[in-house]
Amino acid sequence: MTVCGIVAEYNPFHAGHAYHIAETRRVFGADAAVVCAMSGNFVQRGDLAMMEKYARAQAAVRCGADLVLETPLAACLSSAEGFAFGAVSLLDALGCVTHLSFGAEQADLALLQQAADLSRRQGEALHQGLAAGLPYAAAMQQAVSAADPAAGALLASPNNTLGIEYLSALTALHSPIQPLAIERKGSAHDSDTPADGLPSASYLRGLLAGGNTEACRPLMPEASFAVLEREIERGTAPVVRSAVDQAILAHLRRLDAAALLPFCSGDDGLAHRLTDAIHGSTTFSAVCTAAQTRRYPLARVRRVLLRAWLDLPQSVPPKPEYVRVLAIGRQGRTLLRRMKDTCALPVIIKPVTERSLPEDLQPALARDALADDLYALAYPAPELRVGGGHFRKTPFCLTNT
Asked: How far, in Å, CA of 201 to CA of 188, rounded?
């Protein structure tokens, strides 16, 4: 049985995501199972997901995924390297995933692999770029381009960069999982206009933030849009970070540079810059604007600040300690039965069972619960901003099989 993994955020699940799953099945056959490692309530760009994780996972299985699992929180709030390593580690730990499918602007797997191999060998050149004040992504592109201009050019695209990091993670893990690159169609990453009916997720988030929900309908699969409409009616979407601006800022004001340092990836001056920005700004967005520089890209600044709010230091590894199930699709039960024999980690289906897991897992589980409680503060409906939701939710299970 072919089991293909996909790393995703589905923030929200749109027509381009449906295309990726369909193309993956076209390559491997209609009976291939698709298991997704999906970001939870916080996403890699350093933000809150616009819809809570169980709803986004439900949309994914209603649109073709067979099983949706939560990527570890520490990976979701990491650089592209940490994000990819955490998600691929999760899929590798299942013991039954045979392939990893990812989208790329240039789906030349040999060239992508060349770029991945070169990126692992650019230690000195990368260090020189970082020392010159370049952000990590730019320093890596410069280093790889010096060795191979064609491979380096791939790093100009965020989706190519993630694909290269997935390949690097597979190599680092000595994983038997085989990669598959699917050519990305539609809008470019973060594009503000759809292309061929395929939007970027950021375009849809902009429509939702502006209250233009109906404009999203033709750009999303019907089942995904139905989940979105339901969550809007319930008052749990769209979540916007501005709803918790003051809560975040109130916490950050308690921290000096020394207290912020554990949440930064290295002592390169960012903690001191953030301290000045926190005390000189009145909103989270203003803090980010004040702290952002070429050396400190916006996404990195946001991730550090959210890590500080969530009490998630960089010392917490992105690699998973357990598997959390968010939604079960057509072949999901079959995959879960297989994982009983193959999975190297505990599998959590009902969060209420977490308290019975080993003591060494409890700190990570407690961080997940705290993150979900803080996320709930951003629900549009004030009466829903109560705590404890982490333990009351269970995975959606597709029944019409």
From this structure: 10
For the chain, how far is it from start to end, CA to CA, in angstroms?
Answer: 18
pTM higher than 0.70: yes
SS3 of residue 369 by DSSP: helix
| Cβ proximity of 355 and 372 under 8 Å | no
Per-residue pLDDT, 191: 59
Q: Which two tokens stand for residue 287?
A: 């803090």
* Span 161-177, pLDDT tens digits: 899 999 999 999 999 99
Q: Which residues pair with 197 in a beta bridge?
A: none
Residue 211, judged by CB atoms within 10 A of its CB (0-12, 13-18, 19+), counts as exposed
Give all strands (DSSP E) within 45-176, no chain letters.
Answer: 47-48, 67-70, 99-104
pLDDT over threshold 90, residue 124: no
Q: Which amino acid is at 339?
A: M
| Structure confidence by residue, pLDDT tens digits, 106-116 | 889 999 999 99
Instruction: Name the percent of the chain lying above pLDDT 70.
Output: 98
79 Cβ neighbours under 8 A, 6+ residues apart: 136, 265, 300, 303
Q: H or E element: which one contains 319?
A: none
User: For residues 295 and 251, is the Cβ–Cβ distance under 8 A?
Assistant: no
Tokens 């986004």 found at: 56
The continuous run of DSSP H or E covering 167 comes out as helix 158-172
Q: Is 181 helix (H, G, I), strand (E, B) or coil?
A: strand
**Mean pLDDT confidence for 113-138:** 82
Q: What sign does the CA torsion over 40, 30, 348, 318 have?
A: negative
Amino acid, single-letter form, for residue 317 = P
How many C-beta atoms lie closer than 10 Å to residue 354's C-beta? 20
Strand ranges in 39-191 using DSSP code E only, listed in sequence order:
42-43, 47-48, 67-70, 99-104, 178-183
> What b-and-e string marks burial along 262-290, b requiring 16 or more CB atoms within 10 Å of the CB?
bbbbeeeebbbbbbebbeebeebeebbeb
The CA distance from 259 to 252, in Å, is: 10
CA distance 205 to 183: 23
